[in-house]
Amino acid sequence: MKFGGFLTPVRGLRSRRTVVVGAAIAIAVAVIGSTVAVADISATSPSPTPTADVTGAPTLTPAPLSTLASSPAPSTSPSASSSGSAAPAGMVAATTDGVWLPASEAELATRKPIAVMIDDLAAARPQSGLSMANIVYQAPAEGGIPRYMALFQTQAPAAIGPIRSARLYFVAWAEEWGAGYAHMWGAPNAMNRLAQDTGKYIYNIDGLRYGGMSGYMWRTAFRSAPHNLYTSYAKLETLTKRLGGTAPLTASEFTFEDALPGSARLVGGQIVVPYEHNDVVYNYDWTTNTYPRTVSSEGPEIDAATGQRIAPSNVILLYMSVGLLAGSPAALTKHRLDVQYVGHGSAMVFNNGQAIKAIWTKKSEYAQTLLTYASGPNKGQPVPMVRGQIFIQCVPTYVPARWTVGSTPAPEIGTQGS
Questions:
Q1: pTM here?
Q2: Average pLDDT of the residues of the chain
């Protein structure tokens, strides 16, 4: 990826805000024909554990882009390393998140993934569909406002949204999975990439073409535009197949392992990613071996469509250089961002209550993003994921992400760059 020779750092974007903790009021969204009916439900959840007070956290120095050979497109042949444990009798593993499924549902395990761009402005919360996604990416967009891309394979939400516009780095991540890609227009470089692809790595589902009268997306009445565009998995699956996206996903860029027994897991631990307009907090839950999410003033993050708490089994922090996108007055006026998603950099992987230092590597535009151990006896080997939902956070190197890892008698405290 070309950056015009430099990245303009985006610093001083955020000011600290008090995180208001309280019960979340979710909006249950049910799809009826091409409209969305809304009912209020109260979802009372316990208050999150207070964020660890870590002061003087150093800023991570961006890892330089290495001179790396181009890599071929992701293989569609089965990967012997995609599963770190033998399959139970009559079960198959999903290629996105490694979850065991009955052999009778083998089609779901390799079903073509569908990625959806989802709004994360305060007016768009609570979002619909995130609890049913196999993988979720979150990264900042204009002004440091984060945005989601949810990847669906094994579950089919009846409501997904609100849908927002494409960004180049999200397009590149969706291409790694050969996914259908739903969005409402996008930044010029993202739209150019989608126009050039023509179904080779991704299937372009643009709301400007497939919204409205087409019936694949619809506007709700309970929110104002642009925070009211929704879709469903069934509609997107039909359209993706119509666009030629029928080949199964038979290999994963991750390796998977079964969860550690409770006796081998640590108790406690927290991850904090303080984006400009969304303080994201994960508090590790030993009993479920998941990381329930808390966001900004909304508190516990609840899926509006299901009423479920968002609680992934894996959290990945990818530290990347992020700056203002150069090249046109419009890009600067809109404060569009340039993200160093090709190359390599530091990463942290959290699962089973553990914190693992890792390296992310993406050798070329169309190569997969791989995670390997940064040190120790397994240095250079893939870091396995626990079977279950995966949340991937793109963390700009100027954002002071921090974490604590549970232990006895005192937790180990880490900061970005440690």
A1: 0.80
A2: 81
